């Protein structure tokens, strides 16, 4: 069945192929044809053709009586990160920050009411929620998301948060409008954001904005810690100054990078 509210140039077959890829959720690495058809709402013959096409292209493979995605699917997300150039610019700064805080650090951008992780340098620690490139969380309950939401005009914040989250996470902190606006005003006033187990138990983080040469917020960078190991005082008094220094360095390098014409040799 064709989708409603799509334009004349909408390619239904491409949309169905992406639906099949997205059907493979955490905990479901292998899915039968019937499971894929049920999850996507597609007829079995359609789902089968898509899975076989993905297999021929190297994005899926037959496995254990069903189908599984291959690591090549990662290229789809990495293409976005590489096209931005942000990872190349940020990596040495994130590594410097992680070496001094001994905590993980990530960069995320806003996608609807969620944040999506686009760069990360991690340290091996047991945390409540697993994070990797492409992971998404509800924006309002993360330090990264608070920074990104605080950079938007109030009317835009309302529009963005009206979109349903696609993260599959139910956050612990679900504020009303007044509490939410107060929290974002505080972020604007301070220039950084803190979350203390608002998304899930055990997760505590602080984040700062990354800006382009015009001062626009293009992403956010954080230091993420386990609440049982790192106090709020240590996070804000020891790690925050290092984070702010890192954010400034990445922003400066990004501004220079973006100002240089990118030429591809033929």
UniProtKB/TrEMBL annotation:
It comes from the Bacteria. InterPro entries: HTH_MetabolicPath_Reg, Tscrpt_reg_IclR_C, Tscrpt_reg_IclR_N. The keyword Ion transport does not apply. Residues 11-71 form the HTH iclR-type domain. This is Helix-turn-helix domain-containing protein. Residues 72-256 form the IclR-ED domain. Keywords: DNA-binding. It comes from Nonomuraea ferruginea. The keyword DNA-binding applies.
């Amino acid at each position: 069945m064709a989708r409603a509210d799509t334009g004349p140039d909408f390619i239904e077959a491409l949309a169905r192929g992406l639906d099949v890829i997205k059907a493979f959720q955490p905990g479901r690495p292998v899915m039968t044809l019937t499971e894929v058809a049920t999850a996507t709402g597609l007829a079995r013959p359609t789902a089968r053709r898509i899975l076989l096409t993905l297999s021929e292209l190297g994005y899926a493979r037959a496995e254990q009586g069903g189908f599984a995605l291959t690591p090549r699917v990662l290229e789809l997300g990495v293409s976005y990160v590489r096209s931005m150039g942000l990872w190349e610019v940020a990596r040495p700064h994130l590594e410097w920050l992680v070496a001094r805080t001994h905590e993980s650090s990530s960069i995320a951008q806003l996608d609807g009411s969620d944040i999506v992780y686009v760069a990360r340098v991690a340290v091996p620690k047991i945390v409540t929620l697993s994070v990797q490139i492409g992971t998404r969380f509800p924006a309002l309950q993360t330090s990264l998301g608070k920074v990104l939401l605080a950079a938007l005009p109030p009317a835009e914040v309302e529009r963005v948060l009206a979109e349903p989250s696609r993260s599959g996470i139910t956050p612990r902190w679900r504020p009303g409008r007044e509490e939410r606006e107060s929290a974002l005003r505080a972020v604007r006033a301070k220039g950084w954001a803190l979350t203390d187990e608002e998304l899930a138990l055990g997760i505590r983080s602080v984040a700062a904005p990354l800006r382009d040469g015009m001062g626009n917020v293009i992403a956010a960078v954080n230091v993420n810690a386990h609440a049982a190991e790192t106090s709020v005082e240590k996070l804000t008094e020891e790690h925050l100054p290092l984070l702010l220094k890192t954010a400034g360095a990445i922003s400066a390098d990004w501004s220079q990078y973006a100002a240089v014409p990118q030429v591809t040799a033929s």
